[in-house]
Design a protein that fits this description.
Chain lengths: ~500, ~300, ~230
Amino acid sequence: MSGKRFYKVGRRPWELRLAPSGINERQRSRLPGTRGHWLKWRDVHNPKTLRRERVLADKMPLWWTLGLSFVAIVTPFLSNSLLSVVSIFCVYAAINVLWTLIVGTAGIFSLATLAVVGASGYVAAAANVYLGVPWPFMLLIGPMVGFVFGAVLAAPSTRLDGLYYALLTMGVAEICRVFVLQLRPLTATGGAITQVDSFIPEDWFLQRPGLLLGFAGAFLLLLGALLVWRLVNSERLGMLLRVARTGREDEAFAEAIGIDFRRARLMVFVISSAALGVVGAFYAMYFRSISPQIFSLDQMLMLFAMMVIGGLGRAEGAVVGAAIVTLIDKGLIELGPPRIILVAFIMIGVTIFAREGLTGARAQFRDFRNRKAGERRARRTEKGGEAMPEEATEVHDKQELYYRRFNKRLRERLKKLITPELIEEHRRDPLGHHSDELARVLNYFRRGEMADKYVIHRMVPAEEKFRVMAVSGQRGMPPRVIDDREYHDIKEAYHAVFLLRVNDLLES
Amino acid sequence: MDLGLIVYALNLASIYALMAIGISILWSSVGIINMAHGATFAVSGYAAWLVTGALKPVIAAAFGKTAIASAVMAGALVGSALIAGALCGVIIYLLAFLPIHDKPNFQVRALIVTLGLNIASVQGLLWTFGPRNQGLPKIFGFGRWEVFGTRIRYDQAGTIIGAIVVMGLTLAWLRYSRRGLEVRAMMQNAEGAAYSGISRQVTALPVLMLTGALAGMAAALLSQTIFVSPTAGVIPLVKGLTIALLGGLGSVPGAVIGAILVGFLEAIVGVIPFLGQRYVLFATFLFIIAVLIVRPRGIGGLLDDTRE
Amino acid sequence: MPELLEIRQLSAGYGPLRVLHEIDLTVRAGERIGLVGLNGHGKTTLIRALTHMTGWQQGSIKLDGAEIGGTRSLGAGRRTPGLIRRGIGVAPQGDAIFPGLSVRKHLECGAHTKLAWRERRQRIDRVFDVFPPLRPLEHALVGKLSGGERRMVSIGRMLMTEARLYLIDEPSLGLAPKISQRVMKALWDLSVDGAMIVAEQNVSLLTGHADRVIGMHAGRMRGDVGHVELV
């Protein structure tokens, strides 16, 4: 920046804003193999400095990179117990991110996520222990089971409403638990499969190198889950579903323009179920065992609490919530039952005060501030020409608001000028020399917007026969006739237009 | 089928119906899926245990071992459970309804808050009283009746009769009292209710207290058969929810029919030799899932269809 | 005559949409006002704004001199029951009936004041006198009635207490012409102390009966005070 020094004003003076030169062509590198860009830089016009500025429109990638690299760098230096806490956090976060895909993107309120994880973990572990399949193949068996299980689970979701489906999936988890507990070969271990082979060598298990390896695996798992989330959301499937996201009306709209959103939802469900299968196999390997505890209601509620605290339906919410709850649950383990109560109270507090969890708090606060500012503004100006709170936040150009306010005040003044004498004066002589009041009113009419104006139409060429028409204000839309009255004098027609405009003015 | 089995089935059905009706009424009038219903159940059970434990010496001193003593004991047990349940309802009203009832996403948020209340109170009970089971005094005594060659335990008969009486009272209240009329109006059309001067904030409190008291009654009755423990509410909650769904949320007759169906199903599955008690839950869920897939709106939907 | 309702600079809408634009209206006690306008020009929104059922609103509404308006950007419907209890009777668009209640119970719902509840029998009789076709249907479920009968039930519910201001939204909507004329006739024959505002698309049902007919166009008033007559 050269020349004059500008003081930064507004709500985010610290925000990084580049000054593009405007001479050179813009260079943007693309993600290899796709048409996407690395970061979302956008050029904006600053109305105060009249300069072009380049801002980062979406800052989430930066936060993700910062947060994840912090975890990756700091964790290896932690103590053994904290190391395992972080690894468990990564696993839970991965499950939650994939669950977010089901709840947020697909909009299916499924509570069987852990059931999918558990089922695929069990099958993979059983294949390893009883059939002797080597451990790398478990990572293939897991997703296959997840795929099949997900397809079976997804089928009724098109038929049942949200809550009914949620309860049904809860039932499925319970059925899984009972089923596993019934299995004869597992009764000796209380339903658990132990001695599962793993990517962590047996003599490293629960030792420092094993824990580090476990953390590395869990971290990669989380990255993989985030990649799946990102791919589904940014590609075709996610875009289709974004149309049918919020309500029944949107669904009807999506259907009307030919989007088969039910199929897209099922696809997302099945994809994330397959990914959950990988998590299941990893889970069995990481702990070298798997127990029916994974199907229990408590475990499911714990994961649900993570999502709720972070923000339902957001990937960052899933990860942040997992971090908070895992820290309380596993980090403060010596506290006993009160730590669960603490989690429950956090969950209640967040739900009462935050619309969309902790990660949505910022946007909620902004909405709140804008609304209050709008209400204050509405109260300050005594009336009219002023946008209402919601509208004020919608109108980007604040000049527009001031213009409206000015116009309103002007109209109020002009309304007082209009008297029978004034109208009489215009009737006598529409084109003549006018008094000051009439000139002011006519001036206001002249500079009105096109859509408010009227035209006089000569009905037959070269004949004194006129009628008044209203301009549509849209290109290509012809003026429309407003009444069937005909005037045989152009002055009468002028006066008719004047009366119409006066009427409009008084009504506004 | 022998009579004992029928009595056992009705016993289960009456407890389930008490839970399911509460959930169903609450959902359709206020719009809360009450996940804290199980917590209400457990808390009322503990309240009854505490009160009866404290009153036992007093009553023994005042009346000795007479019929009046056991009647007073029964009154204390049921009364304390009902009051505790109603108080839980007030807490739910204050936390899950009042702060968020006109905010966006109310239904999901209320569900989450009640879920949090459920977790918190179960863990709180676990923390205060420990995981031990606590037995309550048997208000119906220990005897049996001989009816048509089968023996019916007093507590079973008492449970069935008590549940029927309470449900009858509830339905009568809904049907004939003015407050009940307001609740029913709100269940059917919230906007119309607002235009009739029926306030949601005011009406929600008695509804929550009523459903809480129903859960308390269920706890008092079930405590005659099994012990009270911190996690005692989980199974009744899950059963109540699934039965309310099976009945079609919001339909009281649907919930009653669903409870009877599930009660009989469980009783029958329990005595089939190669299935046994361990498969009871399994069979219930399979049955409910099957019904919901065929009739997505449950039995209530079926009733509506036949009425049309 | 005293001014019963005084609306000043009332704007209202839903979310980003602004439906009413600074409405001014004064209603005196005993007046029957017809509100005419095409679909989507704000008749219903005006009636909803009077009972705080719109998404947001701004501006002053005075009922008998007491302020019931104000600026509000959330909380639709929160104040409605309280306003109804202060003496506004509403027969909303689409009737808002309770399909599973009988006609009798339905009318009892409308009797929300203590006095009305005590006298509910006489009052139900009075409604049956106004709408004779309802008498044989006393115990029928409202969900099974025809459109005209539902409209009568909805208006009857409004008549169960003495309101000072009656708001009737589209009494002829969706009814056969004969039935809608019958409903309108019953409405005009009512003797009410307070004022009545009837929103209606069909002007011919209003002319000759309403004391004043006010046009609504694009969220603004047309044809009331301050209007300059065209030559």
